[in-house]
Specification:
Length: about 400
């Protein structure tokens, strides 16, 4: 989305969406003041909890719609509960998905096994529309049994797949078990994490090209990873920011914040919509880079993280850091404030058999600081209960 369209988007939403107008008025501003990306910070982040509350008070869309209800082609329903209108023919969610799929090699002649749900949630419908717009043929399998999907993939000559990585693994394992030869060569995964070990299995053992995507029900596809590592390259649209959940201000490179998105929908404008997802911001040229040059590493959800000396520490970050250090059996982070002023971060680690205590302690300190951007003050070695929480906030806020 071009920056010069921001004012047009905001003015349209202000004129047609009662929920957005109320939010902007409540912040003491007006649409004329929001002319650029920098000006968007004047708009308060709109959380999923707020969206749910509005819809419950005024169903179905809580004043968030910016067009007559008759303009909605489909009603979708996501956990929350949260209602979402289906994308329109000119919706950018489809256009962005089509461009991404074309870029990674899909096109006319492909036969796609779509194992995402078509029931209530928009995932199956969104990817179905994007693939057919490319000229591909879609098998709308949805969430059916693995054996049936395997039969369809074989009989119909599926060359591509879209669905969760865990289901894809099960499908490939079942094919190997039954000696079924498939034509699958390229897969789009989404809706759940793709651990490096699982990617390696899909690529190395089954010969697949794996394109992992980050998408939300409300906004469509936002980022993609088609190679190694955890970083996901941002798509050029919609506008994606990584912000401090407490202040709404953009975080710097290497810092963790909430993914906040502004779309370009005239039907259902979501401006500064907080996804609830926490991510590390990767920016190669701060202040100069285009959005498509930046990337994020997803680390978890709001509510699971604690802030330590101004930086978010999430259980998934801790697990990822610990996985880089040989000899770690289990780890727990404990945050305290012994003097009532300064945060103290201690790690409790259970060693795997035969590991060197000093080497593990030093390795963990470096790994946690590298991933979480926060210094470790102390590492203690000892047993941890199987159900021990990964992060403990022991501070007293009085």
């Amino acid at each position: 989305m071009k920056e010069d369209r921001i004012q047009e988007i905001v003015q349209h939403a202000y004129a047609n969406s009662p929920a957005f107008r109320e939010r902007l008025d409540g912040a003491g501003g007006g649409p004329e003041a929001v002319k650029s990306l920098a000006d968007l910070s004047q708009v308060p982040v709109f959380t999923k909890d707020e969206a749910i509350a509005r819809q419950q008070a005024d169903p179905p869309f809580g004043g968030m719609l910016a067009a007559p209800l008759s303009a909605v082609s489909h009603f979708f329903f996501s956990p929350g509960p949260l209602y979402e209108p289906g994308p329109t023919e000119d919706d950018h969610a489809w256009g962005v998905a089509v461009a991404m799929l074309r870029e990674v090699g899909f096109g006319a002649g492909d036969v796609i096994l779509n194992s995402l749900s078509y029931h209530l949630v928009p995932a199956g419908y969104l990817f179905d529309g994007a693939f057919t717009r490319l000229g591909a043929t879609v098998i709308p399998a949805g969430t059916g049994p693995t054996e049936l999907q395997l039969q369809m993939a074989r009989d119909l000559g599926a060359t591509g797949f879209v669905g969760t990585p865990s289901f894809l693994l099960g499908l490939m394992q079942k094919a190997a078990e039954k000696g079924v030869a498939l034509k699958l060569r390229r897969a789009v995964t989404t809706a759940e994490p793709l651990p490096p070990a699982l990617r390696q299995t899909l690529v190395g053992q089954y010969g697949l090209e794996v394109i992992n995507t980050y998408a939300t029900a409300e906004l469509g596809v936002l980022a993609v990873n088609s190679g190694e590592g955890m970083a996901m390259r941002l798509l050029p649209e919609p506008i994606i920011q990584v912000v401090d959940p407490d202040t709404g201000a953009s975080v710097g490179p290497g810092e963790t914040g909430e993914v906040v998105v502004t779309n370009d929908s005239r039907l259902y404008p979501l401006i500064r919509f907080g996804t609830g997802d926490l991510a590390m911001n990767i920016d190669p040229r701060p202040g100069e880079s285009a959005q498509a040059e930046r990337a994020i590493i997803l680390v978890g959800r709001r509510g699971e993280a604690v802030k330590v000396r101004g930086m978010f520490l999430h259980p998934n970050q801790l697990r990822f850091a610990a996985a880089q250090v040989p000899g770690v059996g289990a780890v727990q982070a404990v945050v305290t404030r012994p003097d009532g002023v300064r945060d103290h971060l201690a790690l409790r680690v259970q060693l795997a058999g035969g590991a060197d205590e000093a080497a593990v302690a030093e390795g963990l300190k470096g790994a946690v600081q590298g991933v979480c951007r926060v210094r470790v003050d102390e590492v203690g070695v000892g047993p941890l209960a199987a159900d021990a929480p990964p992060v403990v906030d022991g501070r007293e806020w009085g």
